[in-house]
Amino acid sequence: MIENNGSQKVYVYKRYNRVWHWIQAIQIALLGITGFEIHGSFSLFGFERVTKIHDITAWSLIFMVAFTIFWYFTTGEWKHYVPSGEKASVHLRYYTLGMFKNEPHPGKNKELSRLNPLQRFTYLGFKLLIVPVMVTTGLLYMFYNDLPAFGINLSLEFVAILHTIGAFALLSFFLVHVYMTTTGQTVFTNIKAMITGYEEIEVVEPEPAAGD
Ligand code: HEM
Fold first, then answer.
1. Is the CB of 160 under 6 A from ligand 1?
2. How far apart are the CA of 38 and the centre of ligand 1, in A?
3. What residue ranges do the domains of the chain occupy?
4. Of these four, 70, 130, 183, 205, which has the most CB atoms within 10 Å of its CB?
């Protein structure tokens, strides 16, 4: 739909995508807050209660991740995350230089190419590296006493350190991610899109053909 101001509203985030995004954001924020209390960074809920909240939230996250993997593969949504041949360097240049010189964004969001190459790369890393590391080390932590029965002998310290390193990596991702969401047309453009599903993009006039 073309708006009066020359911009176009494009449906970029499906309903499940948006619901899943905000539930996951709450789960991860809660896991981060409770996790760092368990780590000893501050005291808010008290140890016994905080470990219970961390464990219950962790199970709810595992359930959501399993369901979302099912959703991605049954709807074909996974295609959005496959790194493509598009030039990631063009986007890297935009976010490190061009953006600060008010240059136009190198790629328009369209439903079929919702994520630019840099976003594909970081979200894929988040989904294939950080989340699996947190879930695996978290489960190892949870079932630590049962591991020898399965022939697994790890020191608790090793598991705790890996889980904590993952938590710091996740915290860094979170900060960069929130910053990047504010770099749209206005500070709230991208956040609004994740709530309503629609993104406003500028309509770029086609280049006149040679000889026109
Ligand atoms: C499904 C994923 C996760 C599982 C299964 C899990 C599980 C656990 C378990 C079992 C513990 C030990 C205390 C307890 O019994 O609760 C723990 C500690 C901790 N968790 Fe998680 N967790 C998960 C996700 C996360 C996430 C996403 C974060 C950060 C954003 C996080 C941060 C921490 C931290 C910082 C600690 C304290 C580590 C230490 O100092 O020993 N966890 N987690």
1. yes
2. 8
3. 18-78+85-202
4. 130
Kindly give the distance from the C-alpha atom of residue 157 to the centroid of ligand 1, in angstroms, as a whole number: 13
pLDDT of 208 higher than 90? no
Architecture of domain 18-78+85-202: Up-down Bundle (1.20)
Higher-scoring residue by pLDDT: 73, 4: 73
Ligand 1 atom with minimal separation from the 171 CA:
30
Secondary structure string (H, E, C) spanning the chain: CECCCCEEEEECCCHHHHHHHHHHHHHHHHHHHHHHHHHCCCCCCCHHHHHHHHHHHHHHHHHHHHHHHHHHHHHCHHHHHCCCCCCHHHHHHHHHCHHHHCCCCCCCCECCECCCHHHHHHHHHHHHHHHHHHHHHHHHHHCHHHHHHHCCCCCHHHHHHHHHHHHHHHHHHHHHHHHHHCCCCCCCHHHHHHHHCEEEEECCCCCCCCCC
| Interval between CA 153 and ligand 1 midpoint (Å) | 19
The minimum-distance atom of ligand 1 relative to the CA of 170 is 30
Q: Look at 168 and 127; give whichever has higher pLDDT.
A: 168
